Amino acid sequence: MSKELESQLIKQRKFFEDILSGMKDWVRVIDQNNRVIFMNEPMRKYVGDRIGQECYKALGKNKPCEYCISNRAIFDGKSIAKEEIVDGRIFSVISSPIRDENNNIYCAVEVFRDVTEKRAMERLLLEQNKKMKSDLNFAKQLQHKILPENRIYNHTLKIASKYIPSEILGGDVYDVIEINDDDLGMYIADVSGHGVTSSMMTMFIRQTLKNLGDKAIDPAVTLQYLYHRYRELNIDDQYYITIFYGVYNKGTRLFTYANAGHNCMPILINKNGVEEISIGGLPICTIFEEVDYEKRQVILEKGDKLLFYTDGISEAYNVQEGFFQNTKVLEVCLENRDKGTELLIDAVIDRVKHFATEEIKDDIAIMAGEIIG
How many domains does the chain fold into? Predict the structure, then answer.
């Protein structure tokens, strides 16, 4: 071999060794006898010069690995990966076969990448996700606990309801407020969006209305108060609340109501049929500084029912027929107007589920009240 050719080969070898030494990853080559025949500089600095030793001894082990990926790479002729712990650190190891000019496999190259911090971060994320899931489940239980019980209120109104959130936490809320011995407040609200923020807003609505006391007798004043309290939160414009609020007085039998942007009007069900209690109004938001809400009244007789619901029902979708819409809710109410509040709610939800050909992506909240005294 000429000196010039020998010099070129030395330079070429030095060039490849420099490349491997410049890598952050460890690189070593294992022959068919499981002995180390090459190590790059980063690996040599960490574990020492182990050339000539059996591969497992070079990693400080006393016996061969139960699953030797280099043996498998040489035998199977393909790259194989596993994780290896070296001196307390975790490495992702990939072993790939090396072939000669005749395509025969004569050794395997192993590349070690330190993934200790990555695995620690993954464990931390898993722990945090586990805690977050636990917290969300607790919040879900709490959110369901604050919904009104299915019972009789003030000896005059029988309430039944169901709530099906589209996520763990939802943005729909409804409640019954026993203002005094004669007046009962009822509302259903829908916060834009889903998840934690919307769920927290439902708590805000409930707490604000519960603390009003006798002031909650006037629905228009109540919604105006809620509007200004909401503006004080300085929440982003993308969030808003729609709410329908009404008060029933068992002495006068008047149901007085107002609406702040809720597009699913409550349905009155009585001996004459079914009809929506319709009234307009701006949603609770931060856009307008001042708002005024209109209020109206309707007389309710014994046996009359009111059905409150949110757009998770009206916006259920069927690819052939489109949205479920309020008209279909009216149809179901008409067909089941002689049934009790629980059965009426079940009938509406069953019809929606059978109608929808796509996943219902919004919360479903529905509450029915029957005048019994």
Answer: 2
